[in-house]
Amino acid sequence: MDYSLIILSSSGRVFVTALLFGLFSIPAQSQTISGLTARQSGESIVLELATISSVNLETLSFFYSNDGGLHWKSIEKDCLTPVSARSVEWAVLECLGVDAFAGANIRFKANVTSCIGTVRFDGYDYRVVEIGDQCWFAENLRSEHYASGTEILDELGNEVWADTKTGASAVYKDMSRNPGVHGRLYNWNAVNDFRSLCPNGWHVPTDGEWTQLTDFLGGELSAGIRMKSSLKDSPSWNGTNSSGFSALPSGDRTYRGKYMSAGRIAYFWSSSPDRNEDRYAWGRYLDYDGEVHRMNLNRRSGFSVRCVRDEPLPKGEEDVPFMVVENMPAMGHCKSLRGDERHQCTQLEIIRYVSNNMKYPPNARNAGKQGTVFVYFVVGKDGKVKDVRVLRPVDYRLDAEAIRVVESLPTFEPAEQRGKAVSVQYTMPVKFIIN
After folding, report:
1. Dihedral, CA atoms, 115, 120, 125, 126, nearest 10 degrees?
2. Percent of the chain having pLDDT more than 70?
3. How confident is the model at residue 54 (pLDDT cuts 50, 70, 90)?
4. pLDDT band at residue 311, thresholds of 50, 70 and 90?
5. Tell me, what's the pLDDT at 19?
6. How many CA atoms lie within 13 A of 67 on its CB side?
7. Element (H, E) at 298
8. Are 35 and 51 spatial neighbours (Cβ–Cβ below 8 Å)?
9. Does domain 3-11+323-432 have CATH number 1.20.1260?
10. How far is Cα 63 from Cα 113, in angstroms, rounded to an integer?
């Protein structure tokens, strides 16, 4: 066998689970959840959001939980003081009227309650716009790194661009076309990369989300004119921009590596593959007319990318994963068991499933790549696996194979805490060894 699976553990790591252990009794404790970092500062807690340019307490709401996320309490805005462009300080002891605030199950989160201003990501500020029930970037993505911090492959010649099987980006050949205006062009491998092109809380829109946008703007036959920048905008195009989407004809890079269509066509990727054709994925393009055209596009081509904000969960339905609960998720024949016996049985079932379905990527084996990939995933309230990501990468081919198999895990019987279905997180080290 070309690999071995050595451990399955539901216990998380600090930077994954975002727990504060013994606040005010252990110095310098911190947590991070979806871009929100919390750290102790004397008798206060500083909350910092990495994905905003400036704190606006009118559009942000902060919450804390002392039971691992089962119940959330709002932090009064009068108790929050901005201390930097992206952080606030909560005088927790004074505001709660307590002498200590500690525990292993303290968590924090922030909700953006409106779609205004800018979002900061990878050193750039992006204007956002609310269109219907969606919140969109009003500018093309131009980042050089994935959300994980890994650099995106860039500056490829035509032949290398045409042959690459990994995520890549490019700036249109006319370097006077500032990527700050037109953004970068990304192939679909970058769109589909598990390290994410968009910041936490945002994602590349699906084919369905593009349809939702154009439906709100009157349908594909007329939405384009409302999405394109107007003659009054700078830079301009021939639309009305009544939606605020501010589309520009930024062109494309073909699957052969050639640059085309600048000044004439705007292409945008979706995150949805064409299930009937492995070489293609769905996207949209706008040209001289007022339409938005839906088209399956070659995955090796380079197109513009917009990010759309994740849909918020309904009020009262926040889903923060636990590490350990009364009854852990169950798989296969383990569903009839309870307690520790159920948990241990499911661990073995997961190991068996992953072992039977994992394939050592031939190109990684030929390149001599081996090591341990640490995969994080969540079994949701509905029993489905979600939020799969690599915590400690080894090689992009090994990482992708580990992600693929974990994402294919069958539906579990969900975990229960106090009689209520809850989400549970896991960390799985998978060891690839070349014999």
Report:
1. -40
2. 84
3. low
4. confident
5. 27
6. 8
7. strand 293-298
8. yes
9. no
10. 13
Enter the pTM of the model.
Answer: 0.60
| Secondary structure (DSSP) of 8-47 | -B----HHHH--B-STTTSTT-EEEETTEEEEEETTEEEE
In order, the DSSP letters of 203-232 are EPPPHHHHHHHHHHTT-HHHHHHHHBPBTT
What is the phi/psi pair of residue 305, to 5°?
-130, 135
pLDDT, one tens digit per residue, over 93-134 is: 888 888 877 776 788 877 666 687 788 888 898 999 999 989
- Give the type of residue at 148: S
The CA-atom distances, in angstroms, between 107 and each of 63, 245, 395 are 8, 35, 32
> CATH 3.30.1150 occupies which residues in the chain?
3-11+323-432
The CA dihedral of 222, 226, 229, 232, to the nearest 10 degrees, is 120
Quick one: average pLDDT of 30-35? 46
What's the CA gap between 178 and 172, in Å, rounded? Answer: 9
Confidence of residue 82 (pLDDT cuts 50, 70, 90): confident
Contact 13, 26 (CB under 8 A): no
Structure tokens that stand for 53 in this block: 């340019």
- Residue 180 sits at φ, ψ, to 5 deg, of -65, -20
Those residues with Cβ within 8 angstroms of residue 276's Cβ, 6 or more apart along the chain or in another chain:
none
Report the C-alpha gap between 199 and 182 in whole angstroms: 19
Mean pLDDT score of the chain = 82
Residue 98 CB neighbours (<10 A) = 10
Pairing relation of β-strands 124-131 and 80-84? unpaired
Helix, strand or coil for residue 338?
A: coil
